[in-house]
UniProtKB/TrEMBL annotation, chain A:
Entries under PANTHER family matching the protein: DUF742 DOMAIN-CONTAINING PROTEIN (PTHR36221:SF1)
Species of origin: Streptomyces zingiberis
Name of the featured protein: DUF742 domain-containing protein
UniProtKB/TrEMBL annotation, chain B:
Family statement drawn from the similarity comment of this UniProt entry: Belongs to the GPN-loop GTPase family.
Gene3D superfamilies the record matches: P-loop containing nucleotide triphosphate hydrolases
Stored Pfam families: ATP_bind_1
Presence of keyword Hydrolase: yes
InterPro entries for the chain: Gliding_Motility_GTPase, Gpn, P-loop_NTPase
Name assigned to this protein: ATP-binding protein
Record field: transmembrane: none
Highest taxon of the lineage: Bacteria
Keyword annotations: ATP-binding, GTP-binding, Hydrolase, Nucleotide-binding
SUPFAM superfamilies referenced in this protein's UniProt entry, alphabetically: P-loop containing nucleoside triphosphate hydrolases
GO MF annotations, alphabetized: ATP binding
Amino acid sequence: MSHWTEGLEPGDEDRSLVRPYAITRGRTAPERDDLRLITMVVTVDEHGEKTAARGLEPEHRAILEQCREPSAIAEIAATLNLPVSVTKILVGDLITQGRVAVRPPPTARQAGLNTTLLQAVRDGLEKL
Amino acid sequence: MGWRNSDQDARPERGRSAPAAVKFLVAGGFGVGKTTLVGAVSEVAPVRTEEYLTQASAGVDVIEGLAEKSTTTVALDFGRISISAELVVYLFGTPGQERFWFMWNDLVNGALGAIVLVDTRRLEVSFASIDFFENRGVPFVVGVNCFHGECDRTAEEVREALDLDPDVPLLLGDVRRPEVGRGLMLALVDRLMAQAPPDDTPVGVG
């Protein structure tokens, strides 16, 4: 019986054999549970290019690149083609390192009580 | 660039600020036009994202001592409408298999409200979504997707068949048209505003 890695080209390992939880070094749950699908993430620019790359997985660097323009967790997950929970772990790493800032969404209750916010949404939709 | 401006609500941890984000759900059964609606109103083509959901298999026959949980990958499509530099609306089309997205708390929690799409030829595929939002107290509106611009039922007939509460807005239209999705979102926001206290006490959007 041939081994399952036979037939893979050298160098393929990085692309085809890395499972999502290998990227997170085995972690399956984010350390912080406050990140939501629409938590906005923005890269903190004070790190220079060199220090920004040190000790980071390629996925971390991709997040830093994408979040130069604020992006939601769901958008980051879609770009990285990773499940949302894995993306949250990676974003959590960057928060811990102070490399990104986040803005949590209002709760449904907060937003539902906030007529200023609702009016802003309404005005925006009418202009579409 | 507007989003660089300081904004008391933005609470940037350092320097820059991100826009506030709000979320609407687009629900209904399989094949009712959820992704079509999202695509018609989104400023970008609908994007697909995935999540692993762990389902406790309570009530399911399992051999004692074997795995009691199963993990499923659920995918959904979502779109984005940038209202301004300070405000973004995300529209999430729920996955077709209700029993999976119903337990995806991060998808449901924080949603301001929902658009439930129905297809008059298969009303029953959207019953579960309507029940779900009614039971959770999530405000929703109903959109009757008139495929190819043809509607074979009146609003009253559909309302009666769905046994809808009189104050749930119901609109008919072809969801391929952006103005139909926009009208549904506006009806939803109007419903939210009608429920909001008249006294405008800022709660803070951050």
